[in-house]
TrEMBL record:
InterPro entries: DUF899_thioredox, Thioredoxin-like_sf. It holds the Pfam family DUF899. This is Thioredoxin family protein. It comes from the Bacteria.
């Protein structure tokens, strides 16, 4: 950073205005991409999925909670894991303050994981979260939406992740899936995103993209290696 260009205020303004034009073009392209995303065809969800919730056993339809749109964040937390994924936790730290705003736009946000509900609730308490988190343990939900992988799939190389054949270093992966429920109660899968597609949900990354060092992840073993659970920063 010591070798970074230092210029006059007038030169800085000229460079900033040039960048502003590129930012505006990017925003217009992003708006167009969002409209294309919203125009994707839908698939009716006919399989019965059941989830353990604090209010008892619920179906996918029940998770809408009176709204017509549902976002399910696929939180990496396997049945025998000691803690939730630190990267998913990094993302989920912004959920609580979003829930009320999303509800005002007819959207319910929940997280789903294969860990037992009691395990999820204990970790949720540790992290100080209040968003709805349900257990999909015993359901095909995670497997059908390509965020959980059987031992056989990992061994024989038949994993599909992010819409292509893939390998993955764990039996759980992150993602987000979107559903719509019509007036007749039919549920449709409208969208899912994985991997870098989740960047748009990570508020902290967007702040880091504003500062001179950016995300500062070059040279790390993997991009999110620096992330810790919120109560573990500063520990050895």
């Amino acid at each position: 950073m010591q070798d970074h260009a230092v210029v006059s205020r007038d030169e800085w303004l000229k460079a900033r205005v040039a960048l502003l034009e590129r930012e505006k073009a990017f925003n217009r392209e992003r708006d167009a991409l969002s409209r294309e995303r919203q125009s994707l065809p839908w698939v009716e969800v006919s399989k019965d999925y059941a989830f353990d919730t604090d209010a008892g056993r619920k179906s996918l339809s029940d998770l809408f909670g009176g709204h017509s749109q549902l976002i399910v964040y696929h939180f990496m937390y396997g049945p025998d894991w000691e803690a939730g994924c630190k990267s998913c936790s990094f993302l989920a730290d912004s959920f609580d303050r979003s829930v009320v705003h999303l509800a005002a736009r007819d959207v319910r946000l929940v997280a789903a994981s294969r860990a037992p509900l009691a395990t999820l609730n204990a970790f949720k308490k540790r992290m100080g979260w209040s968003f709805d988190w349900v257990s999909s343990l015993g359901s095909d939900f995670n497997y059908d939406f390509d965020v959980s992988f059987s031992k056989e799939a990992r061994e024989d190389g038949s994993i599909r992740y992010n819409y292509r054949p893939s390998t993955f270093p764990a039996d759980e992966a992150p993602g987000a899936s979107v559903f719509y429920k019509d007036a007749d109660g039919k549920v449709y899968h409208t969208y899912s995103t994985y991997a870098r597609g989740l960047d748009m949900l990570i508020a902290c990354y967007h702040f880091l993209d504003l500062v001179p060092k950016g995300r500062d992840e070059d040279g790390l073993p993997y991009t999110m290696d620096w992330i810790r659970l919120r109560d573990e920063y500063g520990k050895a």
